Amino acid sequence: MIPARYEIRVFQFLLTGIMTLFVSGAVTLLNLGTSGFAFALWMKAWAPTWPVAFCVIIFAAPAAQWMAKYLIQSDR
After folding, report:
1. pLDDT higher than threshold 70 for residue 14
2. Residue 24 — φ and ψ, nearest 5°?
3. Is this prediction's pTM over 0.90?
């Protein structure tokens, strides 16, 4: 099993994988239509996007969290 201290990275890894899977599938379908759509083309579009998204989320998540906290009023 993976140690608990890596929970956020495992979450980010899985989330980016799922998110890019669906987005690349949707974009592939939009660009090729139902007649030109093929699973292999979808996977070819998805494979390079997952590592990019994972790297981006590692650096973008802290900034997004800061912005969200800035935009949300605290009752304190």
Report:
1. yes
2. -65, -35
3. no
